[in-house]
Amino acid sequence: MKNTILFLVMFTFLVACKPKSTEKASSEHQPVSFDQSTVQKIDIHSHYRYSREYLPGLFKKWNMRSVLVDVSTQDSTGIVRSWDTYLTHAESYPNTFFLCSSLIGTTIDSPDFEQRTIERLHKEIEEGAKMVKVWKNFGMVTKDATGDFIQIDDERLQPIWDFLKSKGIPVMAHIGEPEQAWRPLDPNNPHYGYYKNNPQYHAYQFPEIPSYKTIITARDGWIERNPDLQILCAHLGSMSHDVDMVAARLDKFPNMYVELAARFGDLASQDSKKVGDFFKKYQNKILFGSDYGNGTPEDMLTKDELFKEQEELDANYDRLWRYLSSKDSLEIRGQKTVGLELPIDILHKIYFQNAVDFLKVE
Predict the structure, then answer these.
(1) CB-CB contact of 69 with 85 (8 Å)
(2) What is the topology classification, in CATH, of domain 35-359?
């Protein structure tokens, strides 16, 4: 009897220790509980404009680095950016932050637009930019001299894409908005609060803004015409309401990747099994992003405000981690769901390895 028990114990141990023979088998294995800090992370999409005393410790806790993503906008004073403050922040914490530059189509009609833009991007790449972002101003905001909205597939932008290809610099593309932007406000939609507070981007109120289909079609054409340009479609490519739409593009365009920032609510509104299957199938083309950040210098906040900010940020990262790694019941942007319980090998890719490969960093 004792020999039988000993044999069963040894057999169980050997089976448990046997490595998975294929990636598919590993991906189908349901994870056991594990500490999030064992998974290295890169938040591919953040906006930490100003330093915080607590940030290094918080990022250490999460075993995480982050990409500071610049955004170019235009107001009455001209083009507004965050590049200089991001550069200062990244230089202060070089082991924590990467940099992403940006591009806006303002003055595209000027004879020197191409030269000026390439010279600036070259300078910022030399300063450390690993990526360049284009924003939803293409298609929805910025117009050329004729009054037409500039789409991302505009041929006048092609020399810039060619330059970035030559430098091996990928593009983060936030083109378009969620489909909800072209519909009446719906309190049950995860984007209700955003468009209520930012009505300038609620396209439903501005019939002159091109349709959702027009903008997405221009984006797709741009990707197809630049197969050698690595493109990270921010916010699940503005198709986050339907993972089938995302999947169709990932199948069609080998140079297209997606990141998740600020679209977890859309995922939570869909069937968890379907979303989980999407992650498993496209595990090599999905990157973690949060869109978290700050816009106020530290010395303008009280200790209590900073403490609350830290707590909320920590809780937000925890919520996203639980959605991806556990089968907990959760609520994300008003959407009740259950976690995807992705295996640890897929979490490693989404949180870290895919970003390392895409940005060509260590």
Answers:
(1) no
(2) TIM Barrel (3.20.20)
Residue 6 pLDDT greater than 50, yes or no? no
Which tens digits make up the pLDDT trace of 170-194? Answer: 999 999 999 999 999 999 999 999 9
What are the residue boundaries of the structural domains of the chain, listed by start? 35-359
Residue 48 pLDDT > 50, yes or no? yes
Are 318 and 308 contacting, i.e. CB atoms less than 8 angstroms apart? no
Taking alpha carbons only, the member of 217, 317, 320, 346 closest to residue 268 is 320
Which pair of structure tokens corresponds to residue 115? 């030269």
Cα–Cα distance measured from residue 49 to residue 83, given in angstroms and rounded to the nearest whole number: 9
Q: Quote the CA–CA distance of 234 and 69 in Å, as a whole number.
A: 11
- Cα-based distances in Å from 224 to 10, 253, 310, 352: 55, 7, 42, 27
Which residues, in sequence order, are CB contacts of 282 under 8 Å at separation 6+?
246, 247, 250, 258
**Start-to-end Cα distance in the chain:** 54
| DSSP E strands, 252-348 | 256-259, 286-287, 293-294, 329-332, 335-338
131-141 CB burial, b ≥16 within 10 A, e <16: bbbbbbbbbbb
Q: Which residue has the tokens 């790694």?
A: 325
Q: Are 175 and 139 in contact (CB under 8 A)?
A: yes
SS3 43: strand
